[in-house]
Amino acid sequence: MLMNHTKKVTLGNTITLEEFIEVVRFGAYVEFSEDYCKRVEKSQQLVGKWIEEGRVMYGVNTGFGALSKEIISSEETAQLQKNILLSHATSVGEPLAEEDVRATMLMILQNLGQGYSGVQLETLEMYRQFLNLGLIPWAPGEGSVGYLSPEAHMALVLIGEGKAYINGQLMPARKALEKAGLAPIVLSAKEGLALISGTTTPTGIGALALFDMLKAATAADIIGAMTVEVLKGTTHAFDDRLMSVRPHQEQRDTASNVRRILDDSMIAKKFINYRLQDALSLRAIPQLHGAAKKTLKDALKTFEVEINACTDNPILWPDEENAGALSGCNCDSSYVGIELDSMCIAATAIGKMSERRNNRLINGQLSEYPSFLIQKGGINSGLMIPQYTQAGLLNEMKILSHPATVDAIPTSADQEDYVAMGYNAAKKAREIAKKLEYVLAIELLSVYSAHQFIESDLLPGSASSAVLNFISQFVPNMEDDMYLHPHIEALKEFIHSGEIIKCIENVIGKLQ
Q: Does domain 206-311+322-508 sit in CATH 1.20.200.10?
């Protein structure tokens, strides 16, 4: 999943995952459409009207959770909004990464900008400015069941409380606002609740994980194909006739990617009948990668709905005949949470196959290359220990693949007696995405090192050559032991940035 970077994203109509990432990761300028502004202003006017009419509305003029039976007077409304932020800002530990906070703020703009939340346009304008000016609220990341606490830390900055970063420097919120040319605002009815409710953190943080996993899955096709090539694997396993009798589209597409990458490879052509059948980690690439990609594509559909949804509670229905504040639970994070748990399993499955392929590259008993891809074994360890790193990473990935969403610990005196836990699913998906990139980077390092032992008259395919030539700019051939950590980090970034996909697609066109 590669992108042509855009400098501006307009909120008001449906946005894609790519547009979401443009803002969150690449700093695209955010603006509001005229329709966006109109529907926000219309919804905010309804709140004032209904309060004057004496309607009782959850979170507008009542307490929260188990305290929803407590009626709040109109004179206390502003204090209620401040109090909810102060009392709910209880997440602890290390702060969320800048990308995670930006993703959450963008989700809040999307969520509340649908026009069913009764917030002021001025409030959303503040978050828009935060994104455009690079002001990042400080928000500890531990201790959320799916919403409330990290979002409360972020929202405190709007009213001049809490802390925020400007140019990487952490300071009190009021000072950060001043440096950005902004001033604290006063929240109106319902805004405190609206700013911390919804699936904004699970969806925002999870969308980053999904984007990276989609890229990594394509990179895994590339690296897997290059491993098949250098291990003299048979491409018969990727024949489209095989794929056609088990017509999962992602399986067929993966096999097509491998065939295209190896289409003009002298190595692949010479060794097509070298073995009758390769090990599963080679011949089952279409099946496992395909299954993982299907899971990620299913998640993409869910996320693009959620990114463009209103997940507030209550929602304010503006229709003249059926108007009202409807309390329900659109803030439940099960949709994205279950997808995130599934994504974790899919990404870990890709990683476990990558480690097994890497083992075949470095194990002298399983390949025809020197053990650990080093000539002077004994005095040199070669690529022995990066596989240990893969093993450690995979152990963590397997632990993190335990689903978060099967758990529920009741909160709010059993008013919230079931909790979706999508937030923790998103956090672990982010970790697994990073670890997968490292696992693939280590396999790629072994592929690159193995090529020095290939017969000089046998050339890899043009697609593989493009990747190998790119890597040669920053990774030397290993004749003796060398400091490997910088090369693993560089190869991880090669995968994370999508540059490996560009290398291939510049030669053979767009991959499936």
A: yes
